[in-house]
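User: Here's a chain of 105 residues. Predict its fold as tokens.
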Amino acid sequence: MNKIELLRQNPEGRAVVVGVVKSAKHHVSQFGESIKIVVESAEGWKVWGTAPASLLSEIGSTRIEEVQEAIVGKLISFTATLVRSDRDAAFAFAKRPSKAQFVTA
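Assistant: Prediction complete.
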């Protein structure tokens, strides 16, 4: 594995994620409805998970159109447990997101 591949490799375990929200989508599962986001770090790896409740409460809405407008393209940070994808070392799934906030540059 070369140096660039190591940089792009997503961390695992409990970690702080800082990155730009690339997408926000309405998701329905057997557990109910939620909003899922994809966040891309400055290093190039991506994380997929549930939008942290603290961000949604800061936005003041759970309507997907309003959330997309308020969050996509914004820099955020949050803490979550990351599980690296089996298919792509530069992609992970976030569990139990917390301590989320918008980051001002």
